[in-house]
Amino acid sequence: MPKPIRLNAFEMNCVAHQSPGLWRHPRDRSHEYNRLPYWIELAQTLERGLFDGLFLADVLGIYDVFGGGPEAALRHATQVPVNDPLLLVPAMAQATRHLGFGVTVNLSFEPPYPFARRMSTLDHLTEGRIGWNVVTGYLDSAAKGAGRDRQTAHDDRYAVAEDYMELVYKLWEGSWADDAVVADKAAGLFTRPERVRRVAHEGHFRLDALHLSEPSPQRTPVIYQAGTSPAGRTFAARHAECVFMSGPSKTVVAPRVAAIRELAAGLGRDGAGILMFTLATAIVAPTDAAAADLLAEYRRYADPEGALTLMSGWTGIDFSRLDPDEVVEHVQNEAGRSALENITRADPGRRWTVREVGEHVSIGGIGPIFVGSPTTVADQMESWVEETGIDGFNLAFAVRPETFAAVSDLLVPELQRRGRYKSAYAEGSLRRKLFGRDRVDDSHAAARHRFV
Ligand SMILES: Cc1cc2nc3c(=O)[nH]c(=O)nc-3n(C[C@H](O)[C@H](O)[C@H](O)COP(=O)(O)O)c2cc1C
């Protein structure tokens, strides 16, 4: 039995997400992002294709690095306007039974106490289908929105994140015992007080409080992480159950997969058991020729300046100041680091000009584009899985809804025919579907805070 391939859909509560300019395509409906029917239809399309999850990205700031202001981002709808991702989840959960929801929340701007309750609430309401993509941000504009002058330095953000994680684990795992709630109507006893305990935490964050939610199906949401700098890898090795990465080639992605698995093993975790997803866009049509035509059609609407606006935000480099034919050089700053590594140092055999970056990133971001018939795309996916060690893909879209509909209706049957894809969902929580258990593994950093 070949290794199964897993799929997540990569989305965001905004227009166009990773394919700036494609909102102008006549069939694109991503401008309907602010209406629930749009999201419910997406969730049902993904569930039809047995996707493991919908991964909702988020930023709390504006991409104002390109050109030194917000104009380009606003004009091109470059991840702005952007609404809250969490509020979409209950409606989509109601319209589906199995689809998981990996929601991004930036811990730099969310006090841990109310955040922990919000995630517990979502875990209850989805009956255990919630995951958290732990991010620390890369935009100074987000820090300014929170009343700070600039964002915290790169590695310090991960240090703060360590303390944040310990605190929320204590709330999720350690405040209420599984048998605390008895809801005994005859005795008039809802919760046994001796089975609920205060969490006292002294670190970067301070807290002395009970968690407010009773234990939810998974307690700690499934933890996703998406940074692959040295500090990011260490954080992933300690906390991630699923890792999202992005890179344009197998050469870039494979060593990151191996490094995180090895680091995790060094911490006593099962490195091979961490699920690795890499960003990709699949343009699938009944034949190779039809798929190539579709991609050519999409390219007519792609917006390289919008793409460079995204890249400027991810990397902290103002690409508007560079010559289009200039080769992008590496610099170290306080924004995210993997996005720049992807095009400078991660593949010594490939140098990128600014123009090439703008063109590549304008459809689906920095990941590969798989284009062709279901057979061709399945071949490409299989070779990525074999040669990089990943477990699956985080699929971006070019045009909504058709990119995801083609995956569910054309590609998934081909993957199933090859024995590479499940034919039905497993029952139970998101963690049970992915790992066969509802609660974090005993070797996970959250487990030592359990109330036993
Ligand atoms: C596939 C993928 C998805 C990401 N989604 C988000 C997101 O939604 N919000 C966010 O603030 N950062 C997001 N990031 C950025 C990471 O959280 C991180 O800040 C970035 O990769 C830089 O981390 P590093 O410097 O450790 O590599 C994403 C990264 C990747 C690779």
From TrEMBL:
Family matches, as Gene3D superfamilies: Luciferase-like domain
Family affiliation: Belongs to the NtaA/SnaA/DszA monooxygenase family.
Organism: Labrys wisconsinensis
Keywords: Flavoprotein, FMN, Monooxygenase, Oxidoreductase
GO molecular function annotations of the record: alkanesulfonate monooxygenase activity
Record-given protein name: Alkanesulfonate monooxygenase
Coiled-coil residue spans: none
Pfam families xref list: Bac_luciferase
UniProt key word Chloroplast: no
Domain of life: Bacteria
Enzyme nomenclature, EC number: 1.14.14.5
Every Luciferase-like domain range: 26-391
